[in-house]
Design goal:
- Its cofactor is Zn(2+).
- InterPro entries: Asp_carbamoyltransf_reg_N (IPR020545), Asp_carbamoylTrfase_reg (IPR002801), Asp_carbamoyltrfase_reg_C (IPR020542), Asp_carbatrfase_reg_C_sf (IPR036792), Asp_carbatrfase_reg_N_sf (IPR036793).
- The structure is a single chain.
- Helix content is 11%, strand content 36%.
- By secondary structure, it is mainly β.
- The chain folds into 2 domains: 82 residues, Alpha-Beta Plaits (2-Layer Sandwich); 51 residues, SH3 type barrels.
- The strands form 2 sheets. The protein has a 5-stranded antiparallel sheet, with helices on one face.
- The structure holds zinc ion.
């Protein structure tokens, strides 16, 4: 049986392990993923040692396999996160989250006069103009949004 060696926390039998989360961002990650969901067992490890990045957070979600469309959203605040899908203690799938060039619908524009904040519902749309740190630009009003502003929404 192949053991997931790099996972310092106790292995899970089935589910998803999100590794290499930027340290102290695990709780934001949970919010983006809508966890805990009342069903899945969730373990959070904050400020763990990481040979690659100094320190990191880890989130384990038992008995739930997250889809890439769900987890790619966490690239906004944890751009180096890796997703491990575990079945019967083995990693059957592994990938890095990928921040897309555009972010649709997840965030609100901080500009109160932006059309997306008016009464008629217009889906927000931001362009990723910088990745580290993340800076977004609103498609409609061109307002820039910093990482702090992104985090304050979760
Ligand atoms: Zn805007």
């Amino acid at each position: 049986m192949r053991k997931p060696k790099e996972l310092k926390v106790k292995p899970i039998k089935n589910g998803t392990v999100i590794d290499h989360i930027t340290s102290n961002k695990a709780l934001h990650v949970l919010k983006i993923l809508g966890l805990p969901d009342g069903k899945s067992r969730v373990t959070v490890a904050i400020n763990m040692e990481s040979s690659r990045y100094g320190s990191k957070d880890i989130v384990k979600v038992e008995n739930r396999e997250l889809e890439s469309s769900e987890v790619d959203q966490i690239a906004l605040i944890a751009p180096k996160a890796t997703i491990n899908i575990i079945r019967d203690y083995e990693i059957v799938e592994k990938w890095k989250v990928h921040l897309l060039d555009e972010v649709h619908g997840i965030l609100k524009c901080p500009n109160p006069n932006c059309i997306t904040n008016k009464r008629e519902p217009v889906k927000t749309r931001f362009y990723v103009i910088n990745r580290e740190p993340v800076i977004l630009r609103c498609h409609f009003c061109e307002r820039l949004m910093s990482e702090d502003e992104i985090e304050s929404q979760f």
